[in-house]
Amino acid sequence: MVEGLKSVNELIQSNWPIESIVCSTAFEGSIESQESNDVFLVKPKEFESISQQKNPQGVLAVAQFHDLNLEETSWQIALDEINNPGNLGTIIRIADWYGINTIYCSQNTVDLYNPKVIQSSMGSFLRVQLKYGNLQELLNQKEVFATLLDGKNIRTLPKQEQGVLLMGNEANGISKSLVETIEHTAITIPGNIQTESLNAAMATAICCERLLG
Q1: What is the DSSP string of 167-193?
Q2: Domain 2-63: which topology?
């Protein structure tokens, strides 16, 4: 389920298969509907009962699961046990901003199709493919930059032409078993030691800017 005018219009313009579009009778926006899309009008109260948002915009689309099958760009992001759907959606959006079209996800990372992931990606899920699986296998023979507390200062690293940025769990970081089984360059974002940690999505954006910018 894809909610919000911007995301629904981007979905319509893409090749993503759409089942139907639902609009509240109180909706005043304009959707770029195609003749092939079934559009259903419902009363505002009915729409609120369907919506996953606290303040629904009055339009949503129901779409099919879909694999993008894109040719990977020179940079990818890998996520180890990212549990917060808002973080995943924002990381997808960050990847899209930096031209990264592939994110590798551990099998226990939150699902792409979680409504909060779709919502927080703001349409970027249409351009960024997620590949779930065993990260040890997915990252084999790749140039991995792993975010660790004892890593190299990312501010001193030169711009990199290609690689995989590996981000860990919000609370525990990258799992020890993964770190011990893959070749990697450890990197860190220096900061105030009195602050426990950065938000996972925020840290991803900083690393992308330093490594790719």
Answers
A1: E-BTTTBS-HHHHTTS--EEEE----T
A2: 60s Ribosomal Protein L30; Chain: A; (3.30.1330)
